[in-house]
Amino acid sequence: MSTPLIQTVGLKKYFKTPKGDLHAVDDVNLTVERGKTLGVVGESGCGKSTLGRSILRLLEPTSGQVLYKGEDILKYDKLKMHEMRKNMQIIFQDPYASLNPRMTVSEIIAEPMRVCKTITDKKELDDKVNELMNTVGLANRFVNTYPHELDGGRRQRIGVARALALEPEFIVCDEPVSALDVSIQAQILNLMMDLQDEHGFSYMFITHDLSVVKHISTEIAVMYLGQCVEVASTKELFSNPLHPYTQALLDAIPIPSLKYRNKKRTVIKGEVTSPINPKPGCRFASRCKYAKSECVSPDRSLKEVNANHFVSCILYK
Amino acid sequence: MTDIANSKVNKVEIKKRSQLKSVWFRYKKNKMAVAGLILLIILFIIAVSAPLIVPYEKVVEQSMKHRFIKPSSEYWFGTDEYGRDMFARIIWGARYSLSLGVGSIIISLIFGALVGAVSGYYGGRIDSTIMRLMDVLLAIPQTLMAICIVAALGQGVFNLLVAMSASTVPKFVRIVRSSVISLKGEEYIEAARACGTGDFRIIYKHVLPNVIGPIIVQATITMALTVLTISSLSFIGLGVPTPQPEWGTILSDNKAQMRYYPYLTTIPGIAILISVIAMNLIGDGLRDALDPKLKN
Prior knowledge:
By secondary structure, chain A is α/β, with parallel strands linked by helices. Chain A has one domain: P-loop containing nucleotide triphosphate hydrolases (Rossmann fold, 3-Layer(aba) Sandwich), CATH 3.40.50.300. In chain A, the strands form two sheets. In chain A, strands 6-7-8-3-9-10-12-11 form an eight-stranded mixed β-sheet, sandwiched between helices. A four-stranded antiparallel β-sheet of chain A has the order 2-1-4-5. In chain A, helix 3 packs across helix 4, helix 3 packs parallel to helix 5 and helix 5 runs parallel beside helix 6. The longest helix of chain A has 18 residues. The longest helix of chain B is centred in the middle third of the chain and has 37 residues. At the A-B interface, strand 6, helix 3 and helix 4 of A face helix 1, helix 10 and helix 11 of B. Chain B: This is ABC transporter permease. Chain B: Belongs to the binding-protein-dependent transport system permease family.
């Protein structure tokens, strides 16, 4: 088996709070293959975004490894990391906040190339900006406009163009469509999938929208309170969810049909337990209807139950 | 297909406008700001070409015969109690007043923006150290502070400049710092870091342009205050050394005669007023021109 593009090994990110350590990302082991999309789903506050940012070292992980083609990038020094950043980019959730309001569209797109000095010639830079704008479907007449003059979809296209500017291999997409309305969501998603076909990017697609993740991902990781509870291919996960949390999550997808209007839903009881100094054992145990006394035993690593279907639950051994 | 698309793109290609040009484009829409700019340019021309307008001797030449002459065709702005030509004093005074006012603002602006940005951006121990230092400076009233510095360094125009800058810096540092703190969590700063932008470039390219509004407002207000503080320093003999003319000095020198010869205080007052108004108009115009969101 060839080395995967990105691999996290026991990645942890704890935030220090006055009450104790907040376990935002706790012992996550994931793999992103070349040209594939890993969807990361989970409810708000389960550490999806922190995971994405830790992989890019926008947040310094507490411990663990991030392997890029087998090399641990957390050990890189400043200079090597600067080089490294060309290979990994991020698309942000809110296209209203992720673009500098004082810069024009062309400046925003050109900025990464100026910083990394991949293109120094002025004319060449302008051409590259035009080309990128074409690629993401932004009309050339917007070069001098400022982000606030454009709508959400166009702004997000700028965000995509900026991420593409350095021709990265791996892009973290941090809920790139959740701030957009549905028709624009589809446009941006299709644009991203087309770009993937064309350039062979690998995506890590962070979202809480299950229909989006089903559409775009080849593999899905389900997160709950900083931990990865289930990893499987999209088809497998949607047809055969194993972890009780995943089952509840998928059960919550509304079905747009009159036939199901009286359908009973299993609603998860209780609140998300605090991520500050969590108890050992399964973190979902307090809300799980299958919970047993063994659930508090500390063993909670992912186990391969079916081929390429990993789950961390004592129900499956 | 792509060829057609490309040729179309080339046809409607729009020239990229440089940042400076677009700022100027927005600035000149504001008629008052342009008026302020013209006013300030005129004042600067007067200050620079003072020797061509009246010789310096006229400024210090005293004549008991010509005391308290009201403004006339020979003495445009009249004469003071020593018989010195007020016109010459006002013209030459522009040199001191403008260079002190503008100079001290520019120094404290640059220094304050840099220190404030560093303090706010890095936070932690650097921030605490800088801010405690600034608190020390802020604890002393501006005039007292300036008196201390001038007293320590000695009287003189340059020392006065240092004193005025040092006493206004803390305000700038605080304003810039608080704006930077509110900005540094923004996603576009994170986006800049994601492509490996260095801290220095982030500060001057992404942070400072976004905090320019409050800085400019503060600068124009401080500018007016500085001219007035200099005049009060001159009043107690620590400002611009006599007989060098400075508008504030002239104003306070002639305070005693205000009742009988009002022109002696009115004319330097108007000169100060004009420069302060010009500054404020420019400041307002610049703030709006630098903010693309206010473009109409």
